[in-house]
Amino acid sequence: MSKKMFVIWLIFTILFFSLGCFHLKASKNKISLFQISERPLSEYTSVKISGADVDKPLKDFARDFNSYLDRYNESSGRQNIIAAIGYFLASAAALFSMFLVLRQK
Length: 105
Prior knowledge:
With 105 residues, the protein is mostly helical. Helices cover 70% and strands 4% of the residues. Strands 1-2 form a two-stranded antiparallel sheet. Helix 1 packs antiparallel against helix 2. The mean pLDDT is 90.
């Protein structure tokens, strides 16, 4: 019985450790920021409609969207790190349980 329990705890240890590594790696993934392509020859011309710069709304959108992406990247990274810590703690608990099963012999 104890050998079966040892194998079960070993599987849980490996599983939780693998999930911790996955989330740790995922915490480093970031969505790249939105960049506006420059218009060809834009340094020589300007496009205006009724005196308003046509590119201003797009630049405002890009600024706001990039701000959102920064917050999302930070939040997502933090969530993945917290999940990784939880899985590493679960892996340590499973490892500890595995050794307790060994001591019962």
